[in-house]
Amino acid sequence: MHGASLIPAFWKAAKLLAELPDEARVVAGRFPFPSWTPSSTLGQGLEQAWAYDMKEVRRAAREKRFSSHVQVHLEPSLASSSSAGSRGRSRARL
């Protein structure tokens, strides 16, 4: 077994994201990058290839990070006469 085959795909993806310019295109054969959306594909089955434009991969990654943030709203405690453990504290609501 070759050493390159032992490197998980996400490590390869992180390295490519860090080092390639926006104008670069990555072509993968047999196995796609699971977290990237291909710009185009060609073939089927074992003969399939996926092309990824780095500018689009980075844009999608930024959008995914932005949309995955969870907003938390804090409200004053609704019951001021509730148990001593919750007096004066705010409750988090999703």
Architecture overview:
The chain is of the alpha+beta class and 94 residues long. The protein has a domain of 60 residues. 27% of the residues lie in helices and 22% in strands. It is built from 2 helices and 5 strands; from the N terminus they run αβββαββ. It has a 3-stranded antiparallel β-sheet. The protein has a two-stranded antiparallel ribbon with strand order 4-5. β2 and β3 form a beta hairpin. The N and C termini lie far apart (48 Å). The relative contact order is 0.13.
Low-confidence stretches: 88-94
Q: In whole angstroms, how far apart are the ends?
A: 48 Å
Please state the structural category: alpha+beta
What is the number of beta strands? Answer: 5
**How much helical structure, as a percent, in the residues?**
25-40%
Rounded mean pLDDT is: 77
Could you give the order of the helices and strands? HEEEHEE
Sheet of most strands = 3 strands, antiparallel
Radius of gyration computed on alpha carbons = 23 Å
What spatial form do the alpha-carbon principal axes imply? elongated
What is the beta-strand fraction? Answer: 15-25%
Strand line-up of the largest beta sheet: 1-3-2
The helix count comes to: 2
Keywords:
alpha+beta, 5 strands, two-stranded antiparallel sheet, disordered C terminus, single chain, 94 residues, 27% helix
SSE blueprint and pairings:
Layout: H1 9-19, E1 25-29, E2 40-42, E3 49-53, H2 54-67, E4 73-76, E5 90-93
Antiparallel strand pairs: 1-3, 2-3, 4-5
Protein name: Protein FAM173A
Organism: Anas zonorhyncha
InterPro entries: FAM173A/B
